[in-house]
Design goal:
The protein has about 270 residues and is of the alpha/beta class. It has 12 helices and 7 strands.
């Protein structure tokens, strides 16, 4: 589906930037308009390493999906998925049932169009603050065939949820899932007390859109995910998770505030 095709979807306004299309542009995709590109480039001017970190996060999602598929998991349930373009989970998991979800109606409508010819995928509406209700929906149960030993993806979600919302989200997944289920979660951190004017403006862009944007420490993130348990060796930086050399992340990438991202694989024991 090209940008002109997107413009024909009811409700899509090419002149208004959209978070999912901005994310797609950041990843090097093709499902965006000039307004999205301009908004993304402004974000890059504030925090230039954004593009690099976001691409690494998507690579973590793909790597985790491939790993759980090798381990015999046949169902992936993804939250706050964004656009399911050619580099998303379903592209690397042929034969695996992939359930995407988002709260943005335009993202959902676009996602459903993109997946129209993929019988093993679905794109459904889900407010992650009510993830437990979503998992118990009849259409979700039907698509998963009643399976509850699944792999979950929670990529870049935690910063947009308040503390108790994070706890409820991860607990809802844990309570629903069968023992043996896996969860990939990614976390963003920075050095306590450090900030810059550009960072404050970057965060302010989300706040102006009505979004929470809160960073926690790694121990705080792990506590928020309880009772999910990290697998052996499962707490790693995204660089380590992807097996990249030490010099791949530079001091410039940390933007003067000690930015670090983690990819953590959990399991329900």
């Amino acid at each position: 589906m090209t940008a002109p095709d997107l413009a024909r979807i009811p409700g899509v306004d090419p002149n208004v930037p959209d978070a999912a299309r901005i994310y797609d542009y950041t990843l090097g995709g093709t499902h965006h308009f000039e307004a999205d590109r301009q908004a993304a480039e402004y974000m890059f001017s504030l925090v230039p390493s954004t593009r690099k970190w976001v691409r690494m996060l998507r690579d973590c999602l793909r790597a985790a999906a491939q790993q759980v598929a090798r381990d015999g998991y046949h169902h992936w349930v993804d939250f706050a998925s964004g656009l399911p373009t050619e580099d998303h989970v379903h592209a690397v998991l042929p034969g695996v049932k992939v359930l995407y979800s988002d709260i943005n109606p335009l993202t959902i409508a676009t996602g459903q169009q993109l997946l129209a010819h993929h019988p093993d995928t679905r794109y459904l509406e889900c407010d992650i603050r009510a993830a437990g209700d979503f998992l118990r929906r009849p259409d979700v149960e039907a698509f998963l065939g009643g399976e509850r030993r699944v792999a979950f993806g929670a990529n870049g979600i935690t910063v947009f949820l308040a503390t108790e919302e994070n706890r409820r989200f991860f607990r809802a997944l844990y309570d629903w899932a069968a023992p043996g289920s896996k969860l990939l979660a990614t976390f963003e951190t920075k050095a306590p007390g450090l900030t810059t004017p550009r960072w404050e403006e970057f965060v302010g862009m989300f706040q102006k859109m009505g979004e929470t944007f809160s960073l926690y420490s790694l121990p705080e993130y792990l506590e928020l995910c309880a009772p999910w348990t990290p697998v052996a060796g499962g707490v790693r930086t995204v660089r380590e998770f992807l097996g990249l050399p030490e010099g791949h992340i530079t001091e410039e990438d940390r933007e003067g505030i000690g930015i670090e991202f983690y990819a953590v694989m959990f399991e329900k024991r």
